[in-house]
């Protein structure tokens, strides 16, 4: 490890707009709570389509401080549950629609990066959903069959095909396109700067405490040092919905982990795909995955997820250390050239999970003129940007361009997150992690 403290992500959003703390009474036409990709995408598309709109973005910390700046930068078309489960739960038409929406979301992010001039830009490349274990091969076979029956172009790669791309002995893979890797904090920061350039106001270090109907029109947002009254509000707060007691069902916070390394040797870098920009995700849920970095480093994530019990929960740091250690051991097993590679960054972030693996993007019941966005279940890089654009269009009264998607809804299923139920959930997630690590 370097001198960087544990928890410091590899990414740096660089220059950000001014973000004073909100004090006193403030008004806006639209208030966006959450300066991550979903909230900033919503603010950006609102300002782009309606230049005279008064928009205020409020965040508990600032842009890219949460999950949007702490991800691993895998941009792929995954949306909702795996294809075979999507067919079983929602039918073939909806499953095909969901996958097509994921593909379009990737294309839209690539176009947005070009428009904003995101520093470093995305690195277009293949995303391989690969398998080394019998469980992974079974999962791949089910998804390949579903893709074929749905008429989707998701080629099957043999072990030789995989090794021609990345020198890791996976036994098979599915090839997902379009896909890319990018710096998630750079995209978030570029969106924030673009919003500020369009007149959007930012307030940082202003956590939302409560939201309630206003006296005349629109919601009232209660903050530690003031009130924000808006005609409309978007709560892009992901798993913080539970703490705010929002009636959006259960969006469970899960803490997930990542590490980044020093630059690899030229031989190891080329063997793992080099500048082609491939990302490899194991087919077993929660299993580790990796991608390469422009500086020849490697980022690995997954392998462990925990249901947090609060920042001061006993044993939290010890659980993080174990998760990072497992990831380090796994990445060193990928290729002989990684046996002594030095890990330079270790960090974690919180994602929002739902009981049916579908996001929640819709109006909040009981709160007129308030929308919620969250629950991307770890696949939020492309989907968050798409969700923000969708909500912006809805707030402006624009007709939806296509059929409603299964995640255009106001609530997710409820899960038992209090009392004994929380211990059961934690045990279930821990079991998934053990199964995933054993399979890899």
From TrEMBL:
Q: Which residues form the FAD dependent oxidoreductase domain?
A: 29-393
SUPFAM superfamilies to which the protein is assigned, alphabetical: FAD/NAD(P)-binding domain
Kindly list the GO molecular function terms attached to this UniProt entry: oxidoreductase activity
Q: Name one Pfam family in it.
A: DAO
Residues in coiled coil: none
Q: What domain of life does the UniProt record list for this protein's source?
A: Bacteria
Q: Where is the signal peptide?
A: none
Q: What is its EC number?
A: 1.-.-.-
Q: What class of enzyme is it?
A: oxidoreductase
Keywords from the named record:
Oxidoreductase
> What PANTHER family does the record point to?
FAD DEPENDENT OXIDOREDUCTASE DOMAIN-CONTAINING PROTEIN, SARCOSINE DEHYDROGENASE-RELATED
Protein name in UniProt: FAD-binding oxidoreductase
Which organism was this protein described from?
A: Streptomyces parvulus
């Amino acid at each position: 490890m370097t001198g960087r403290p544990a928890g410091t992500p590899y990414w740096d959003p660089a220059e950000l707009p001014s973000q004073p703390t909100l004090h006193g009474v403030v008004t806006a036409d639209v208030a966006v709570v959450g300066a991550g990709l979903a909230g900033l995408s919503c603010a950006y598309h609102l300002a782009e389509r309606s230049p005279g709109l008064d928009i205020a973005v409020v965040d508990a910390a600032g842009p890219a401080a949460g999950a949007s700046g702490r991800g691993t930068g895998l941009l792929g078309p995954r949306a909702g549950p795996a294809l075979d489960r999507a067919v079983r739960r929602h039918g073939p038409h909806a499953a095909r629609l969901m996958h097509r929406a994921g593909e379009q979301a990737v294309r839209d992010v690539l176009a947005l990066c070009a428009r904003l001039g995101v520093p470093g830009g995305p690195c277009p490349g293949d995303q391989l959903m690969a398998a080394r274990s019998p469980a992974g091969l079974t999962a791949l076979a089910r998804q390949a069959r579903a893709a074929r029956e749905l008429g989707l172009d998701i080629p099957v790669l043999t072990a030789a095909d995989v090794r021609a791309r990345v020198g890791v002995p996976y036994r098979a893979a599915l090839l997902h396109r379009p896909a890319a890797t990018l710096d998630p904090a750079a995209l978030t920061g570029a969106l924030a700067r673009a919003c500020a350039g369009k007149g959007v106001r930012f307030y940082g270090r202003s956590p939302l405490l409560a939201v309630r109907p206003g006296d005349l029109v629109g919601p009232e947002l209660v903050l530690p040092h003031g009130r924000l009254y808006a005609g409309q509000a978007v709560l892009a707060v992901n798993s913080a919905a539970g703490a705010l007691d929002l009636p959006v069902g259960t969006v469970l916070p899960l803490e997930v982990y990542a590490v980044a390394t020093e630059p690899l040797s030229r031989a190891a870098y080329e063997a793992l795909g080099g500048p082609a920009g491939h990302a490899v995700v194991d087919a077993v849920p929660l299993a580790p995955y990796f991608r390469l970095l422009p500086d020849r480093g490697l980022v690995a994530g997954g392998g462990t997820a925990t249901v947090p019990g609060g920042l001061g929960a006993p044993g939290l740091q010890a659980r993080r250390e174990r998760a990072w250690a497992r990831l380090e051991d796994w990445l060193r097993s990928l290729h002989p050239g990684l046996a002594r590679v030095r890990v330079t960054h270790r960090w974690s972030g919180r994602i929002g999970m739902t009981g049916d693996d579908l996001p929640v993007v819709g109006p909040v019941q009981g709160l007129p003129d308030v929308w919620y966005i969250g629950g991307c279940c770890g696949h939020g890089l492309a989907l968050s940007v798409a969700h923000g654009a969708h909500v912006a269009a809805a707030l402006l009264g624009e007709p939806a361009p296509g059929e409603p998607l299964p995640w255009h809804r106001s609530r997710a299923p409820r899960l038992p997150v209090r009392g004994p139920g929380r211990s059961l959930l934690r045990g279930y997630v821990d079991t998934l992690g053990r199964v995933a690590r054993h399979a890899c």
